[in-house]
Please model this.
Amino acid sequence: MSMADISRRRFIEAMGAVSTIGLVGLTGCGAQRASDTGSSAGEGGIADTITFAQGADPRGLDPAYVDDGESAKVMSNIYDTVLRFDVESTEVLPCLGEMPEISDDGLTYTFKIREGVKFHDGTDCDADAIVTSITRQLEPNRTEDMPYASFVFGSEEANTGIASIEAPDATTLVITLRSPSTPFIKNMAMTLAAPIVAPSAIEAGDSNENPVGSGPYKFVSWSKGENIVLEANEDYWDEERKPQTKNVIFRFITENSSRVTALNNGEVDIIDGIDASVVPTITDAGNKLFSEDGMNINYLAFRNDTGAFSTVEARRAFCQAVNVEEMVQSLYGEYAGVATSVMPLWMAPYDEDIKQTAYDPEAAKAAFADLGITSCTMLTYTNPRPYNSIGGQPLAEAIQGYLADAGVDMDIVSYDWTTYQTKVDTDAFDCCLYGWVGDNGDPDNFMNLLADENVSMNVGRYRSDAYNQLIQQGLSTPDGDERDAIYKQCEQMVADEMPWMLISHAKNLAAYAPSINNFYYHPTGVVHMELVTKTA
Model:
């Protein structure tokens, strides 16, 4: 188990991080399924259908082409990965492949691939299929609409990631890296980019709409704006994780209050994207609350390359203008903590001595006047996010109020989440609200965002050769004090240069009917439904 996993468990034990409100025993290997009102019961008193309500449609269902949590939650049930995470942590376990043999120079990884696994369409999920699924995301095959490809599999320019991948036979996968990579093992278990897509679906050209994987659930249908229907893969290869519920429906309900109403009325069985204001309504109705410290960061990104906040002085004035502690307490209550670092404080390495810019409204007002900044434009999203349960609009308006007190008129432009992810790439703005849910528990997965060339990762277009060099060092340095020191330097650079204004780390919040068993919201923000059941 990694230091991050150990630190997280110790922190939770020490601080009582799991809320006692409505929290019941959370065991098992994934989220549990519930049935729609009126659905028939399966064998042994288990309902046939569970409905999970989330705030938006996925952007797509091919892991090569998406970068959002809504997509990840659905895809985590359709696909397998070469390696996988444990149900409650980011400890890496075997999946399609056994744990690899690694060469002495740390460059060659040899995986023994499980025999006899089939994709949902009956084709072989063997080493050749894995090569096909990954190779399309490597240079020169990689396309601009593959947002996670460089993040997971590296790039030639940075001399990182995969140099070659081959299948000497159907049960052997050999991956050679350009340079040693400490997080590579964890990258192979991630829900974005890493899951293995059937070559038949790739060849058909519609894998983003009609996914074919080898996971515990098969894709049935997608009614845009309404729901996605999955059915159990009765031939699933993993006997310990065979799906226990026949059907899983992911339903899309934009408004937080409407999802709560649907849960309390029995229309759905599990919901996420809830905020502190609705918790009493949920628990008073007899439903259960899942609450645990999340692996995320909620932040405001400045355009570092152009606009009002392209200088450190302007970004400092902005950060001085906003009382982050007051704002977080007001908006999120006990369900989020003030972010004093990019990484959550339970993740190693956390350094309490690194300080963010302090609230100083008078200094902010004077600095804005000296800089001639009287207005700015913020882009935001309307949907709830795992790191921002209230949605972007209320958060933007709170920040707008602080800026007004400092003499700056902020114009807020809002979009639904799917549209928003395009707009931050194409439109002009001075700052925007964004966030991140950690994919694998490694510090590189957080700190590397600010070194990424892809706008969907590095939305503020921050560029620093010194920072990038630290990231490269961190990639190749083994876990330990030396590696921790590198990421502390990265954290200090963020505090000094302020490419982001750090806001909060949210708890993972979800709610479910009392008939639901074995539900767990993974630290990476996905829900594994195969062992979740609903008592009929």
Remarks:
- Residues 481-497 form the longest helix (17 residues).
- DSSP finds 16 helices and 20 strands in the chain.
- Residues 296-508 form a domain with the Dipeptide-binding Protein; domain 3 fold (CATH 3.10.105.10).
- The two ends are 37 Å apart (CA to CA).
